Amino acid sequence: MNFLRHHKLDVIGVLETKLVEATLPKIMRTWFAGWKYTCNFHTHPNGRILVLWNPATVILEELDISPQVIHCAITCKVSSVSLLASFIYGYHTVGSKKPLWDNLISFGENCSLPWIAIGDFNNVLNANEKCNGKDVTSHELKHFEECCVLTGLTDLRSMGCHFTWTNNEVWCKLDRAMVNKHWFDQGLDGMANFLPSGCLSGHSPCIVSLLDVIANTNRPFRFFNMLVNMPIGSMPFKYLGIPLAAEKLKAVHYASLVEKIAVYLNGASVWDWTPAKGDSPLLKRIFEIRDIIVSKEGTTELAIANLDRWFAGENSGCSKAYEYFRPRGIPKVWANEVWRHYIPPKHSFILWLGIKGRLQTKDRLHYMDIDQNCALCGTAPETLDHLFFQCNMTNQVWLQIKKWLCITRAMTTIKSALKYMKKKKLVGLLGNHVPRKAQMACTCISYLTARNKRLFEGAVVTSDGITRKIKTHVYKIMFSSYPHVLVQYEHFALGH
Ligand SMILES: [Zn+2]
């Protein structure tokens, strides 16, 4: 009640009241003596929309009542301004909201007066009106966008919270105050103020002031739209206008900071401006970054073109900027051959260790008192190159694998083998390059497994056995990537 008194409201829309109609007269007597009300409670059990007004200051006539909207005609007794107002509380799903859009479109068709549609549309109008949570789909936006085009409704000037609803994980702009063309044609001014959510519900209360907003005196009337019975949440915190809780900041989140800087520069070009000694460290840092881009690109024009490129697509700027400044190592030629989406991570990891020379072959375990000879053939010291390329046993495997994959070149190290796989236009196996590319990872892991089995379990391993393992690995990869050629590959992978 303090809230109502403080904001001097003349017309109030309350959404999702969860009240029943029978209790309203008592509530009115207790809290709103002399006020009148209308509601759409008979259309929905939860008491969805309640409109209250003070007949001393406004004349309100209800025009149409439906589950998601109440249309009214309002005349202000003080200023004699007449307008139409629609109090909206949209259902949650795309399909169930369709009647609301249709209703607004048909109402807008015959509307020649200033019209304000205010409330919880339960729908964002732009992908950037949601922070965290699932991405907004074009399907969700379509009907609302169409409705705005057909009715000519646009957002009334607003201040306060951009995101009007939160459950402390996701922030959305669900509530708005929208006006039509006649609103401006008739010279109506006004301002919607979205107060922080959490003072009454998870939604931001929206207060619309008409006419003399700036003078702050003699306000004829306002609307107030609040939602109750939502979980009480805290306001979304921002620093310099940037939401702190957003996991992924998008360029649009910085808009208010950019605006503030623009005001501070007072018309001066960002590209010529030099920060003064007393300017904030943040501002100085921003201009340092500007200078870095200019010096990297050579000229201001190229730097501007670069920024334009980053921000050409929607929401893509931040990641491109991040990539631009991120320090990078020199790309390894083999990286793409090792980290392929179709190679199981375990296989990739073993191959990567092999390339780095980090597999625990016996030559790297010389501090242990163990037989240094190869576990597979027992005739030479076990080094990585021996195990993979020089060992009699694995040589036999290589012969079979090379024949199988039509590889003619001799393999001597993992790196050169990978380089070869990369260079060659590898077709031949049913026109597919995957088996050859995948086989290195499969071969590495199969050699290592065979060697460990022999070493630790004393198992008998044969070159045929290892070959079969490699073929099965490749076959599995092929099956997961190309299930439709399964039959040919089954014969191919398991046959000899
Ligand atoms: Zn050996």
TrEMBL record:
It comes from the Eukaryota. It holds the Pfam family zf-RVT. Residues 318-398 form the Reverse transcriptase zinc-binding domain. Residues 2-186 form the Endonuclease/exonuclease/phosphatase domain. Gene3D superfamilies: Endonuclease/exonuclease/phosphatase. Coiled coil: none annotated. This is Reverse transcriptase zinc-binding domain-containing protein. It comes from Rehmannia glutinosa (Chinese foxglove). The lineage of its organism: Eukaryota, Viridiplantae, Streptophyta, Embryophyta, Tracheophyta.
